[in-house]
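During the second half of the funding period, the structural biology subgroup turned its attention to how the target accommodates small molecules. The most pressing case was fe (ii) ion, which had performed well in the primary screen but for which no bound structure existed. We therefore specified the complex as follows and requested a full 3D prediction, including the ligand pose.
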Amino acid sequence: MPAAIEQFLDTRTPDAWVREACGRLPDLLHDHANCELKAASTALGFIYRYPGKAALADRMSRLAREELRHFEQVRKILKAMDVPFEHVSASRYAGRLRKAVRPREPERLLDMLIVGALIEARSCERFAALVPHLPAELAAFYSGLLASEARHFEQYLDFARRECALDDAAFDARLAELKELEATLINSPDPQFRFHSGPPV
Ligand SMILES: [Fe+2]
Ligand SMILES: [Fe+2]
């Protein structure tokens, strides 16, 4: 796992989640496909909402394409496993993080970008936690995705720092709050198994 991500996240994925995931690979992949689609859609959302921010729009346009490509790759694996693709509702993880986003600008943009960085960092950390336990082909695929998500994490964090013109102390304080919420979601038992769920109840 990239050192920057290990340092960034407040907590590691619980072993109980990894064991659950390895026993439920079709469910994991199904939710993973949905996550990639949502990642593309979130990236497009930034372009719609902040059309005047050219650098952000350029980056998010490329990101949306990359996430859609991931979506296609995961769907192909699902198809080979005979798992039908269906839409799933938002997970507790994404739902709670989104709920923490403040409604007014510029706080909204800052929070959305920090949440994006957290989700990308956690995805990278989960891929790294899963890789040693997966069948060879899936392990190779997830190792490749891990590198992409690490890059996306850096990009989200960069934009969060430079688009919102906050001083360092204010930025760090908000980052610490959202990181703490994220760690709580990762450590508290979760009735629903998802790619970003807490340990099973
Ligand atoms: Fe992705
Ligand atoms: Fe990503």
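Two results from this model are relevant to the next phase. Residues 24 and 143 are 19 Å apart (CA to CA). The helical segments are 3-8, 15-23, 25-49, 54-80, 92-99, 107-130, 136-163, 168-187.
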